[in-house]
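YM 10:42: Argininosuccinate lyase sequence, as discussed on the call
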Amino acid sequence: MSKLWGGRFTKKTNQLVEEYTASIGFDQELAEEDIQGSLAHVTMLGKQGIIPEEDAQTIREGLQKVLQKIRSGEAEYTIGDEDIHMNVERMLIEEIGPVGGKLHTGRSRNDQVATDMHLYLRRRVVEFVDMLEKLQGALLLQAKQHTSTILPGYTHLQRAQPILFAHHLLAYVSMFQRDIERLQDAYKRINVLPLGAGALAGTTFPIDRHFVAEQLGFASVYENSLDAVSDRDFIVEFLAAASLIMMHLSRMSEELILWSSTEFNFVELDDAFCTGSSIMPQKKNPDVPELVRGKTGRVYGHLVGLLTLLKSLPLAYNKDMQEDKEGMLDTVKTLQGALQLFAPMIATMKVNGEQMRQAVNQDFSNATDIADYLVNKGLPFRQAHEVIGKTVLYCIQHHKFLLHLELDEFRQFSELFDGDIYEVLKPEQVVNARNVYGGTAKPQVEGAIVRAEAALEQT
Ligand code: ARG
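YM 10:58: structure's back
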């Protein structure tokens, strides 16, 4: 089969070169966007009188037929046609004859491929915002049921201070909110049209880029033609945002994995989201969070891969840039898979409040509050810290927790202790004492839930 660009060549392409340089194996994912872009381009060619209106009409109809064939799986791609752009053009010409060859007037694959990528990511970013909101919804659903459930909060993975389970979940709601905002911000740079840049310098035809932008729903067009075909910042931004989303999911995964271990036993993931062992009959493994944690690495890899690919690339298009696609496509797939599972997995998760409660009763996470108690009785904080440190050491040596100490025992360490200390020690009291904006006290957490729900409803 002859090449669409075969004119200046006297030899057939080496078979291995054909295989090595072809991108059709992966860029066929962009078929819908490629045709969408071509439809807008050819409509503009007709409107501008660059090609006759009836030819534009014939090409549009041809493109629709090609689209149908692609959708029905009837279309056959060949690596001889290298990429999705030339495969579609070839199919178009087969469909409507040589008039199909007018489609590529005033256009290059360089501005075409960039346009496809912008269209592709624009659609995905909108979907990801939606998926993140669903996940926030699932977290809020759980949070609302657990505004009285207390668990140990950790620092250094050591018991630190008790917190409401709802408060812990709301931390993730906030993280995913930043992710949403990052995607929405990246959207501004994605929603810009490169088409019309030609190969690199523009085109001799009297095209109307703004008309094409309007048809495709782009907010603006690239200011500079070299930049339009060289820019892949918008993909880097997407991969960076995706990396952060995966990082957040991975941190949550790690907690879910720990929490569903026998040692913690704080939560139980629904059977539908776990798998068993082929040898150990008792096992119920948290494979989904484990895989999400694992797959985070490949998304980071794609980000670093693309940054490295772009480093030192001269303007404008270089074939290196064909390597921008697989990482992006894989990131989209990886993120879709994770987000799709996380929302229902969180919504159906069973929370073992009893176990959390027991854990809180068997630790020293109320120690800060006793120090604060002494401060309120006039002792400087640093001294109070020392006193409670000694008290805790005494407890450890006597296999007791602070709640179990008699008033006399407390008084060995400070005369300032009184009967009211026992109120201060209670986990509810410890939690509710942190009644600052953003803190874990119940009224604060309830307020945070109301605000988060209102923000979610606004979207
Ligand atoms: N398949 C190519 C890519 O993905 C399309 C652009 C090719 N342009 C070129 N001048 N060879 O980058």
